[in-house]
């Protein structure tokens, strides 16, 4: 059986995601099993997911995925390189995934490989990267400039976020010496963060905007019916939409306790910690802090991730790789994959959270970090009665009949 890995956030699962899964099976065969490494309750842009992870995983399985696993929390709050590496390493550790499928604005695998090779090359590309960083460019822009200096066509790829992630996936495969074969799928529909749906395929940010504004019915034609149904039920239950605004003051109360030295544990020691400390002191909400701290050198997404890491007490010393595999949702073919993983997976597999207590002591710190993150996420539920801690021990994966 062909088993294809997909890295995703599904925040929320929409028609463009369904298109990607369908195109993956069109390329590899209709009986291909798809395993998703999905961000949990916190996402790579430095924010809370709009819907809780087990619900989002349910939507994915209802719409074509076969098994959904949780990407490590640290990877989810890392730059593109750490996010990609953590998710790909998780899929590689399963020992049974044969392919890795990802979307790209330009699905030219040879060109993407050229960009990946140049991004890690020594000599002139590395010198150009150091010079661009010294000039104050953020890492992503500096990398694009360095690659473009050596190969303008490859450098142009890095102007698009999905191409950038595609390049990072290829770098991760090479670093891991993985046997997974890459498959680039042409991205269809709206551009990243676009507020205008294209051909009925919206950006996730546009859907989040509609959902948080209470415009649920406008989402119906832009989401698969099953995904729309999952979200509708979550709204009725008081579980969604989750917004950071609900925990704004809780975050600020924690951040005000921190010194620049404390903040450096969560963002590095390159000056951002001082800007964050000043912004936290002088502003009264998360968005204002971000606006005050960001510069060309410190992009908004990096600022948000640093603040979120500080709130969750997740220092950058915690690597983006997994200590265990958490199952969030299972479909029919997913059960076959789980059976295979008993013999192939290099990590402990958690299906029922109650079994966490039996895992080795070395893994318990990672489990405790994740439990804290989920408990803090619960504070943002729309329904006050759901904002209790310890919820992770009361939840089990969705299983498609």
Provide key terms for this protein.
49% helix, 401 residues, globular, 18 helices, alpha/beta, 10 strands, two-stranded antiparallel sheet
What does it look like?
There is one protein chain. With 401 residues, this protein is α/β, with parallel strands linked by helices. 49% of the residues lie in helices and 10% in strands. Strands 1, 2, 5, 6, 7, 8, 9 and 10 form an 8-stranded mixed β-sheet that branches. The protein has a two-stranded antiparallel ribbon with strand order 3-4. α17 links the parallel β8 (325-330) and β9. α14 (272-282) crosses α15.
The gist of it:
The chain has helices spanning 15-28, 53-62, 73-76, 80-93, 109-119, 124-134, 139-150, 152-157, 161-176, 204-212, 225-236, 248-255, 260-267, 272-282, 286-293, 300-312, 332-344, 364-378; strands spanning 3-8, 33-38, 42-43, 47-48, 67-70, 99-104, 181-186, 325-330, 349-350, 398-399. By secondary structure, it is an alpha/beta fold. The model has no long low-confidence stretch (mean pLDDT 94).
């Amino acid at each position: 059986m062909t088993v294809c890995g997909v890295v995703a956030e599904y925040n929320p699962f929409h028609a463009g995601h369904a298109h990607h899964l369908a195109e993956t099976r069109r390329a590899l065969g209709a009986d291909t099993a798809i395993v998703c490494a999905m961000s949990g309750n916190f996402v790579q842009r430095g924010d809370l997911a709009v819907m809780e992870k087990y619900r989002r995983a349910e939507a994915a399985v209802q719409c074509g995925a076969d098994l959904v696993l949780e990407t490590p929390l640290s990877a989810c709050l890392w730059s593109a390189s750490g996010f990609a590496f953590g998710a790909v390493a998780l899929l590689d550790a399963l020992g049974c995934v044969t392919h890795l499928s990802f979307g790209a604005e330009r699905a030219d695998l040879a060109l993407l490989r050229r960009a990946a090779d140049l991004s890690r090359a020594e000599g002139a590309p590395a010198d150009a990267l150091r010079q661009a960083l010294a000039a104050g460019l953020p890492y992503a822009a500096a990398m694009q400039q360095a690659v473009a200096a050596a190969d303008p066509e490859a450098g142009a790829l890095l102007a698009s976020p999905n191409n950038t992630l595609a390049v990072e996936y290829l770098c991760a495969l090479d670093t891991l010496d993985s046997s997974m074969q890459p498959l680039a799928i042409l991205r269809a529909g709206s551009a990243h963060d676009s507020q205008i749906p294209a051909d009925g395929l919206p950006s996730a940010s546009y859907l989040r905007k509609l959902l948080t504004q209470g415009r649920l019915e406008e989402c119906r034609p832009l989401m698969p019916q099953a995904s729309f149904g999952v979200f509708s039920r979550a709204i009725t239950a008081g579980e969604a939409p989750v917004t950071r605004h609900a925990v704004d003051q809780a975050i600020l109360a924690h951040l005000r306790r921190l010194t620049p030295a404390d903040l450096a544990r969560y963002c590095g020691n390159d000056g951002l910690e001082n800007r964050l400390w000043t912004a936290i002191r002088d502003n009264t909400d998360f968005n204002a802090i971000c606006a005050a701290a960001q510069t060309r050198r410190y992009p908004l997404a990096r600022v948000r991730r640093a603040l979120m890491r500080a709130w969750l007490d997740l220092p950058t010393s915690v690597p983006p790789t997994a200590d265990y595999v958490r199952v969030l949702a299972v479909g029919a073919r997913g059960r076959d994959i789980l059976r295979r993983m008993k013999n192939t997976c290099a990590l402990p597999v958690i299906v029922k959270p109650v079994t966490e207590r039996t895992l080795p002591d070395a893994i318990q710190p990672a489990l405790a970090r994740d439990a804290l993150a989920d408990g803090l996420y619960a504070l943002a539920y729309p329904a006050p009665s759901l904002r209790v801690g310890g919820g992770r021990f009361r939840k089990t994966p969705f299983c498609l009949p």
